[in-house]
Amino acid sequence: MKVSETAPVEPAWHAGPTMCSERLLLEHITSRWGVLILIALLGRPYRFGELRRAIGRVTEKMLTQTLQTLERDGLVRRDAKPVIPPHVDYSLTDLGREAAEQIRALARWTEERMPAVEKARGGYDAGRA
Amino acid sequence: MKVSETAPVEPAWHAGPTMCSERLLLEHITSRWGVLILIALLGRPYRFGELRRAIGRVTEKMLTQTLQTLERDGLVRRDAKPVIPPHVDYSLTDLGREAAEQIRALARWTEERMPAVEKARGGYDAGRA
DNA sequence: CAGCATCCCCGCAGATACTG
DNA sequence: CAGTATCTGCGGGGATGCTG
Questions:
Q1: Is A59's CB less than 7 Å from nucleic acid strand D?
Q2: Radius of gyration for the alpha carbons in chain A, expressed in angstroms and rounded
Q3: pLDDT digit string (tens) for A36-60?
Q4: Largest CB tally within 10 Å, which of A107, B47, B61, B127?
Q5: What residues contact residue A23 under an 8 Å CB cut-off, 6+ apart?
Q6: For strand B87-92 and strand B76-81, is the pairing parallel, antiparallel, or unpaired?
Q7: Do B118 and A1 touch (CB under 8 A)?
């Protein structure tokens, strides 16, 4: 889908067993843990365990998985220092910083507009009861 | 999570059986069909079937479901005219327009940066083979 | 410390059929 | 035309255990 044109929406941008790569990238960025990782790294680089504690309630598996996905997309840089015990730093690439800033803006927007949304939800639910 | 502060990331913003409402809102906006609906409606109002055809490959169920979610969040306005056959118009609220513009910006960003991302993916995959 | 390998569950998307 | 209702699968994500 060329979102540069507003409408009509070109099909096949999105779904199916073969989801297109743009849609996949968007999926990665806006994913549950992707959002939090990007925003955290916008502050400063983090080590693995440190990031885990900072985010909270994320399993090692999901953190690893998401970090790998973001690294593969070129958004996160993985810097493994060959020492014992292992020391791995994660930081944003320039590309990642761009993405992170956009997603942070969106996250902030949801915070700002949450009262309005909550009100709308209340009204909607009331109209059905 | 207060994303206004960059780090550390406050836990419990996100996951669990009880996902917080901000996170839910973000989920709705960035969802598979949510993105496409918002972007389409940014162009002009649509009728149900018209929207269905414009987006393509979306089942009635998912379109209905996503529209209801977005309506409940106060992003989409549903205008049902009491005629036979039924005639229902969907359009963006002011809140919805704000969200849609942000998501369109993000979608456009993914398009612009896709070459760089593809390149990064190639490099990453090459390094493992 | 920073992962990888497995198992397992339930939630959401798709398919299908029906209705005001 | 614009939905609702029900069934089913499959895979994302959590829990747990192991490793260099």
A1: yes
A2: 18
A3: 999 999 999 999 999 999 999 999 9
A4: A107
A5: A13, A14, A15, B32
A6: antiparallel
A7: no
